[in-house]
Specification:
Elements: H1 2-26, E1 34-38, E2 40-56, E3 59-63, E4 68-73, E5 80-81, E6 86-90, H2 93-128, H3 134-167, E7 169-171, E8 176-181, E9 188-189, E10 197-202, E11 207-215, E12 227-232, E13 240-254, E14 257-267, E15 278-295, H4 296-300, E16 323-330, E17 333-344, E18 348-353, E19 361-366
Antiparallel strand pairs: 1-19, 2-11, 2-15, 3-10, 4-6, 4-9, 5-8, 6-7, 8-10, 11-14, 12-13, 12-15, 13-14, 15-18, 16-17, 17-18
Helix pairs in contact: 2-3
């Protein structure tokens, strides 16, 4: 019995020793209280992001100058049309009747003109023989001239009515693709003060453009000829490329946010890009090859209770927003290091100067149980 007791005690002692040995072996290093990332060398592209809408470079709105009911419709969405091709016909009956009435009126006026001309000729002969007064003669001649003017007016009215009749036939002014049809058979269109739009025709869908809204804080870094990479939701991660062709000077203000429209020219040889697609554009501001990079999360990390030290010199130094303090884990404690950063993207910033080198581990977050881990997207405010 006593021997069994000693065996149990020995087993318990061994288990306790094994537990404390396991705790000592698996205890985290002091530096594990911090989440770190390495400084590395690599390439960095500084970009400006903006959203925009894809549209054809040239879109022609086809309208009508006369009112009427759509009698015949010859084209539909996505149809390719040639210049001068028949698109639509309005009911011509009203305009044909007006033309017929004007032609009949002209015939009547010409008959009256012929009589007035004959009367003027007879009056001239009688005036030479002193059978009528000069006043009677001039009155007859004036009547003949008035009849001639009426003929000219009637001819002009016929020309106008014939033109209006021609306007009931709508033809394509350009060659292209019908991207919008605004009317249907039997619909009445009214051309009073504003010309109604019947069709929209894109001249060339192999050449598109993005109308991107760039914030006023970024527009100074956008230049004509600048490369633009973009994606559209329809093709996921497939990348497309364009070039800035115009920066419009007319600003747009929405909820006190000022943006400028930037036109980006895009080639679309395979027709993959469609009008109206939303483009997520990145304007390439600068490229940096083989530079020292630091994760942006390290730029925003500050230990609890840490305060920047003030310089002891009495002179005032010019404030440099690019000078930042980052922290390196040394002996389980965050060691502050001053660096100067340059260009940045969403993940990394370029180290322009400072003691850091490739392979150094910088602190990005505090992983202690009583600390909150924070994430950062893009470089923080310069302090």
């Amino acid at each position: 019995m006593q021997r069994r007791t000693w065996i149990i005690i020995a087993a318990v002692v061994l288990l306790v020793a094994a537990y404390f040995g396991w705790r000592a072996y698996t205890a985290p290093a002091a530096d594990a209280a911090f989440k770190t990332a390495e400084v590395m060398r690599g390439d960095l592209e500084e970009v400006i992001t903006a959203n925009g809408t894809l549209n054809p470079v040239r879109v022609v709105s086809v309208g009508t100058q006369v009112s009427g009911t759509v009698a015949k419709l010859y084209v539909d969405y996505n149809d390719r049309v040639a210049a001068g091709q028949l698109l639509l016909e309005l009911d011509p009956s009203v305009y044909a009747a007006r033309l017929a009435a004007s032609e009949a009126s002209l015939a009547n006026i010409k008959s009256s003109q012929a009589l007035a001309a004959a009367n003027a000729a007879r009056a001239a002969e009688l005036y030479r023989q002193n059978f009528i007064s000069r006043q009677e003669y001039e009155t007859t001649v004036a009547g003949a001239r008035g009849a001639t003017a009426q003929v000219q007016q009637a001819e002009a009215q016929i020309k106008q009515d014939r033109t209006n009749l021609g306007y009931t036939v709508i033809r394509s002014p350009v060659a292209g693709v019908v991207i919008s049809r605004e009317v249907d058979l039997g619909q009445t269109v009214a051309a009073s003060f504003n010309t109604p739009t019947l069709f929209k025709i894109a001249r060339d869908l192999t050449k598109m453009q993005i109308e991107a809204a760039v914030a006023e804080a970024d527009v100074s870094r956008v230049k004509v000829g600048q490369r633009v990479d973009f994606t559209v939701d329809a093709y996921g991660t497939r990348a497309f490329t364009g070039t800035v062709s115009q920066i419009r000077l007319n600003p747009t203000t929405q909820q006190n946010v000022v943006t400028y429209t930037v036109i980006v020219s895009v080639a679309n040889p395979d027709g993959a890009l469609l009008p109206g697609m939303t483009a997520n554009a990145a304007f390439l501001v600068s490229e940096h090859k083989d530079v020292l990079l630091i994760p942006n999360a390290a730029l925003s990390f500050k230990p609890e209770g840490w305060k920047p030290q003030r310089g002891k010199s009495g002179g005032k130094k010019a404030y440099d927003p690019n000078m930042l303090t980052v922290f390196v884990a040394r002996d389980g404690k965050p060691d502050p290091v001053r660096i100067k950063i340059g260009a940045s993207d969403s993940d990394f910033s370029e180290i322009v100067s400072g003691p850091l080198k490739a392979g150094d581990a910088v602190i990005t977050a505090d992983t202690s149980k009583d600390k909150k881990v924070t994430a950062s997207f893009g470089p923080p405010g310069r302090k």
